[in-house]
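Example 253.
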Amino acid sequence: MSFTVLITGATSGIGAAAARRFVGAGHQVIATGRRQERLDALVAELGADKVHAIRLDMRDEAAIDGAIAALPERFRDVDILLNNAGLARGMEPAQEADLNKWREMIDTNILGLVTITHKLLPTLVSRKGAIINLSSIAGTYPYKFGNVYGGTKAFVTQFSLNLRCDLHGTGVRVTSIEPGMVETEFTTVRTGGDQQASDDLYRDMDPLTAEDIAETIFWVATQPPHVNLNRIEIMPVNQSFAGFAIARNTPAA
Ligand code: NDP
Ligand code: 8X3
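Predicted structure in complex with NDP:
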């Protein structure tokens, strides 16, 4: 059986790898993102019969409405919504962070995600489809400079679990995928284009790849219809947990 997967943020990293994985297995993909040249390249690579590309900023509700309304007939029956578009911005402590970056993360990772989910829920219910959300370990484990990014991902995890409750009895499946370090454009975006910072972060530690996560997503999506993976936490072997931090000689008041 072949299905239709709408992937937000298919222009790089996990989303692009997922598009390749689904199309490679004979399914069709609606690929979204802001970078038109990347969308064009994906269509050229995977074929216009298999990929319908939509240039879309997840922060623009009217654009989401327009994109859904303009879906060609054969891409209308969305079976799987892969809510992947998202980003971290900034590597500063909260007290030094840029409020605009916080807003950008909230607008993209939370508002964009809930908006497209809300608009596609009637279709997903009618299709007994699936919602697969990209959360993160950053939504569970606090770390320095994770501040609002981690907060947005905690939202995604809890929203996923709450969707499960509301969708009980509809046959719609919901999964929260929670990766640790995956080497994509994530850190260059987070640092405002610092490729060296990205290379340093992933150096000598065998990070997860976008293909690792795409494979997990594909596996989740192709389980028998009675099986729901609620949450999947996945990390590189060489990333684990740090202890608590203790500040000495800093009186509480
Ligand atoms: P990338 O930066 O490689 O990809 C992010 C994707 O999101 C791009 O396709 C980008 O497209 C899209 N995107 C970002 N902002 C917008 C927007 N406003 N409107 C539309 N699309 C947008 O990073 P990853 O592949 O690593 O990230 C994918 C998801 O996985 C994110 O939600 C991220 O938080 C999550 N994640 C990543 C981890 C990692 O370590 N890499 C770990 C855990 C979770 P474009 O710029 O063309 O708009
Ligand atoms: C990103 C995961 O470990 O780079 O969501 O913060 S990590």
